[in-house]
Amino acid sequence: MSFLLLDSYLLLWAALDDPKLSAEARELIEDPTNALAFSAASIWELAIKHRVRPEEGRVEPRRLRQQLRQAGYQELPITSEHGLAVMRLPLLHRDPFDRMLLAQAAAEGAILLTADARLARYRGPVRLVA
Predict the structure, then answer these.
(1) What digits encode the pLDDT tens for the residues 59-70?
(2) Domain of 71, in residue numbers
(3) What is the pTM of this model?
(4) Do the Cβ atoms of 113 and 98 come closer than 8 Å?
(5) What are the strands, taking DSSP E only, across the chain?
(6) DSSP label of 67
């Protein structure tokens, strides 16, 4: 059993059954032996994007959060421990949301699933599922 934290795009693609979701990601998400999680940082990021460009928002963030919780995903809050863990990350990727997700995965013993090759360059608990 693995504890998997999905990045923001994977959450959206999974919720929408988007063809951008790779077969590898789909298999990991659908495997009942894996525990799935989403971060408050992802909801925050998607809420900002939805507010700035509502016409591009395919899923309203509040609704996405409800769907994820109903599907059994664990919600990870952002803690000061997570904030401090960001300091240990090299500056390979400047996106603050992605850096927070990686810090959360490391602090919580999860594997961060991502389709972002730049984010997957980090050492540690990150897995590229492109």
Answers:
(1) 889 999 999 999
(2) 7-128
(3) 0.92
(4) no
(5) 3-6, 35-39, 74-76, 111-114, 126-128
(6) H
